[in-house]
Amino acid sequence: MMDPDYDLFLAVVEAGSLSAAARARFMSPAMVSKRLVRLEERLQTRLLHRSTRRMALTPKGERLHADLLAISAAIGEAEARVAGGPGLPAGPLRVSAPTSFGRMHLAPHIANFLSINPGISLSLDLSDAFIDLYSSRVDVAIRISAAVDSGLTAHRLATSRRVLCAAPTYLAGFGEPQTINALRDHRLLAAEGQLPWQLTSPEGPIHFEASSFVATNSSEVVREMAISGAGIALRSLWDVSEELASGRLVQLLPDHEGSSDVAIFAVHPPMPVPSPAIVAFIAFAKSLYTPTPPWVA
After folding, report:
1. How far apart are CA 280 and CA 132, in angstroms?
2. Same domain, 182 and 254
3. Peptide bond connecting 294 to the previous residue in cis, omega within 30 degrees of 0
4. Which residues fall within 8 angstroms of residue 26, CB to CB, at 6 or more apart?
5. 94-140, pLDDT tens digit by residue?
6. How do strand 263-268 and strand 153-159 relate by DSSP bridges?
7. Domain of 233?
8. What are phi and psi of 198, to 5 degrees?
9. What is the CATH number of the domain that holds 176?
């Protein structure tokens, strides 16, 4: 069992504030604050910067938090081994994935994963935000990115090809661009943070600056708007391969695609020996997407 003050420290970081942790633990904020002060006095270091508006870990607090997460995981692994037998995947497993990818290419396979690993208690969080694996209790995150934080252990699952595309209805009304510069005369669609586009071409990489015709924070909204004929989007094949095959979307400027550096990874904090549940999930994900992912079959 972990030291109660360490456990409370983890709960505060996960909740994001003293008051939220207090509510979750049915304690008063004053008591939570008192115990954190007691822990800091015992360790003779400040762990958290606290104010009325925000809370942030100090460098030593970040180090302690990472170490305690590893200890907590080790305790969970030990309990899982006792409950499920040596080396068997068991216990809680917390997975995070991007919303669209998780809904389309992960959720449909969860039943199969759990039938193979009945001892695992799975929690699946879908979010387009990059979850901080050190300040949350996520065990594995699916990341679609050109680079992975060097502080994480990354397992490459697949390449994420992205193509320019639009609906036939849009092209009928606005015409089909024949050059990359012609895109500037069109309605372009992208979620917040997705522009500028990084493209590859026969002439080399292109940094394409533009603004989205409709502002949105949702990549799924961009997908639906493109299908409905609102404009041109840069979409991943895993997201629109069926629409391209059916003709609901048409690929444009086939010599220009999204940067080939972008890939799909499973990432987790570094650890000497990942838990059997983490190993099982990553192996299962690799079986789904390698060597050829289903969206390019």
Report:
1. 22
2. yes
3. no
4. none
5. 999 999 999 999 999 999 999 999 999 999 999 888 777 776 778 99
6. antiparallel
7. 162-258
8. -100, 110
9. 3.40.190.290
For residue 202, say if its preceding peptide bond is cis, omega within 30 degrees of 0: no
Question: 92: helix, coil or strand?
Answer: strand
Distance (Å, whole) CA 285 – CA 1: 32
Domain end call among 88, 108, 137: 88
- Euclidean distance between CA atoms 72 and 83, whole angstroms: 16
Q: Could you give the CA distance from residue 143 to residue 145 in angstroms, rounded to a whole number? A: 6
Q: Are 166 and 250 contained in the same domain?
A: yes
273 and 242 in a common domain: no
Of all residues in the chain, the percent with pLDDT exceeding 90 is 55
- Looking up residue 109, the CATH number of its domain turns out to be 3.40.190.10
> Over the stretch 161-201, which tens digit does the pLDDT of each residue have?
999 999 999 999 999 999 999 999 999 999 998 999 999 99
| Helix/strand/coil for 280 | helix
Q: How many domains does the chain have?
A: 3
Token pair recorded at residue 211: 């603004």
Q: What is the pTM of this model?
A: 0.72
Separation CA 228–CA 187 (nearest Å): 13
In this structure, are 173 and 221 located in the same domain? yes
- Residues contacting residue 285 through CB under 8 Å, at least 6 positions apart: 106, 142, 155, 157, 266
**Residue 166, strand partner residues:** 250
Closest by CA to 47, choosing from 20, 21, 10, is 10
Q: CA 89, CA 80: separation in Å to the nearest integer? A: 7
- The neighbouring-strand residues paired with 270 are none
**H or E stretch covering 200:** strand 197-200
